[in-house]
Amino acid sequence: MEKNHFVATGYVVRDGKTLLLFHKKLQMWLPPGGHIDEGELPEEACLREIREETGLEVEILSPKRAPDPADGKVEYLHVPNHVQLENIPNHPQHIDLIYFCRAKAGTAVIAPNEHDEMRWHSIEELHGSHVSEEVRITGTLAIEFVSR
């Protein structure tokens, strides 16, 4: 049996909406994300995947412990807003670290090898039948979190 794969996903929020991409392979609306490369930190993977899939630079808003000024030997990373185990057909399970992010200035662009459509979704638009329940719930939480 193949080992689980670690992945990082970023719910990108701007102006009360979150960006979803229509994933070519899975044929569903998903936030940007992907595999964590060997030697890469989860938050680095999240930022890289968002940049590769959307062209956007983002700020991770998920919690991060303040550095201890007395130590300096320990670096604190962003804590994912949650971690989920995903069963993907004909693929090893994904252990997905979910981060909530705010988009910086710039326009999102399609990455044709990954997806052929992208759309900003308000909380109301997340309730469309095209969005899975899991993405609807987490997208709503991301919009609320970033809007605080």
Tags for this model:
2 helices; alpha+beta; 148 residues; 8 strands; single chain; eight-stranded mixed β-sheet; 32% strand
Characterize the overall form. globular
Rg result: 15 Å
Q: Beta-strand level of the residues, as a percent range?
A: 25-35%
**Helical stretch tally:** 2
Please tell me about this protein's structure.
- This protein is an alpha+beta fold and 148 residues long.
- Helices cover 19% and strands 32% of the residues.
- It has two helices and eight strands; from the N terminus they run E-E-E-E-H-E-E-E-E-H.
- It has helices spanning 42-54, 133-147, and strands at residues 5-14, 17-23, 28-30, 33-35, 58-60, 82-86, 94-103, 115-121.
- Strands 1, 2, 3, 4, 5, 6, 7 and 8 form an eight-stranded mixed sheet that branches.
- A hairpin with a 4-residue loop joins strand 2 and strand 3.
- The longest helix has 15 residues, at 133-147.
- The mean pLDDT is 93.
Kindly summarize this structure in a few lines.
By secondary structure, the chain is of the alpha+beta class. The chain is 19% helix and 32% strand.
Summarize the helices and strands and which ones pair or pack:
Layout: E1 5-14, E2 17-23, E3 28-30, E4 33-35, H1 42-54, E5 58-60, E6 82-86, E7 94-103, E8 115-121, H2 133-147
Parallel strand pairs: 1-7
Antiparallel strand pairs: 1-2, 1-4, 2-3, 2-8, 5-7, 6-7
